[in-house]
Q: What sequence folds into this?
């Protein structure tokens, strides 16, 4: 539409000048055409900017602030939005529960593909809501600025502590950080993989490397597997390196990586790759069918036996288990606290002790080892096992 506006205005400008060309030199006509075309392009640029602003405002336009209290929440997803069968969908589930159980009026938005309008979406959400939730650590800086600019609106960011590490204080009195012990849940699915593996070789696919988050998944998975079998082999590959975060949205690449791992002898692969992980499950199915054997994938964030079943039910039998990162619980709990007037700034940790992380049993594929996994869970909760967050510190 934007290109059409530009072309139409330029064409009208040229046509209008042909009528005046009879009494002008050709050079004057060319100059006039250029001047008028430039002016037309300026109008088009202004129109584009207006359209962008209007589209962003429309994102939050359906919700009006009610004077009766904190009942409106704006949730801004990570790139990809609803439908990732993982992180964003878990946040959506928590939002829906808050709407159903607590009466919250909700509105949702997703950033553009490069995330460049995060700050704008947060401000628009703050303009129309009493509470704003941002899904993902990439919002942290913009959320801190928005919290400072909107002191009467409370903010919560998933996967960032929202803590000033220099002072040890929250970055703002109206900013909460919802963080998770991903390494603890990953330990349990690592143990499950080692207990179930028949080849003694496992795989790990990370969406994006080396910014301190996905490495926690790898570290826990590695430590859990080695706790069961100190001789087990674990192969690791990340799709992209930060600051390129597109690895979370590359299922085709995850499928290629997983296929190679299966061909090289891994029979169970754990992914921490967001929407890209769907490619791993597709690879498990294809490899199993082509080779007359059975290989598995382990999901992340949500119970992917259920979520992936909404896309392709034939993939469910390849989901051994999933590491549950209860983003839905965190979203619901922070909204519950807000509604009760108990909002707390700074980090709020969701670990095994509060079932903020865990593992799924849907499908029944790990029913025979639940006792082993729960024993590991008890040791982690008691402190008898301390789970690492840095994979380079885990042997094997």
A:
């Amino acid at each position: 539409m934007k290109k059409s506006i530009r072309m139409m205005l330029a064409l009208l400008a040229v046509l209008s000048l042909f009528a005046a060309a009879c009494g002008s030199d050709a050079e004057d006509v060319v100059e006039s055409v250029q001047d008028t075309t430039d002016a037309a392009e300026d109008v088009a640029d202004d129109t584009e900017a207006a359209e962008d602003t209007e589209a962003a405002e429309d994102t939050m336009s359906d919700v009006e602030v009610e004077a009766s209290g904190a009942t409106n929440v704006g949730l801004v997803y990570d790139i990809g939005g609803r439908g990732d069968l993982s992180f964003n969908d878990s946040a959506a589930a928590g939002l829906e529960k808050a709407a159903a159980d607590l009466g919250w009026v909700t509105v949702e938005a997703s950033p553009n593909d490069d995330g460049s309008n995060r700050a704008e979406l947060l401000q628009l959400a703050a303009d129309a809501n009493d509470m704003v939730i941002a899904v993902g650590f990439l919002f942290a800086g913009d959320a801190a600025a928005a919290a400072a600019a909107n002191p009467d609106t409370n903010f919560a960011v998933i996967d960032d502590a929202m803590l000033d590490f220099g002072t040890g204080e929250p970055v703002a009195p109206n900013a909460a950080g919802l963080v998770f012990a991903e390494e603890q849940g990953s330990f349990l699915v690592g143990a499950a993989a080692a207990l179930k593996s028949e080849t003694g070789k496992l795989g790990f696919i990370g969406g994006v490397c080396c910014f301190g988050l996905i490495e926690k998944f790898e570290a826990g998975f590695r430590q859990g597997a080695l706790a069961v079998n100190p001789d087990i082999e674990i192969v690791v590959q990340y799709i992209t390196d930060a600051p390129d975060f597109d690895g979370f949205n590359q299922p085709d690449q995850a499928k290629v990586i997983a296929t190679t791992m299966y061909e090289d002898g891994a029979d169970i692969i754990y992914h921490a790759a967001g929407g890209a992980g769907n490619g791993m499950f597709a690879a498990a199915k294809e490899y199993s069918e082509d080779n007359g054997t059975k290989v598995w994938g382990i999901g992340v964030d949500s119970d992917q036996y259920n979520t992936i079943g909404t896309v392709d039910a034939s993939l469910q039998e390849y989901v051994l288990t999933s590491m549950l990162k209860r983003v839905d619980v965190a979203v619901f709990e922070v909204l519950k606290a807000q509604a009760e007037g108990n909002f707390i700034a700074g980090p709020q940790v969701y670990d095994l002790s509060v079932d903020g992380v865990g593992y799924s049993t849907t499908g029944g594929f790990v029913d025979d080892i639940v006792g082993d996994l729960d024993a590991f869970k008890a040791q982690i909760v008691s402190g008898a096992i301390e789970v690492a967050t840095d994979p380079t510190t885990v042997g094997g």
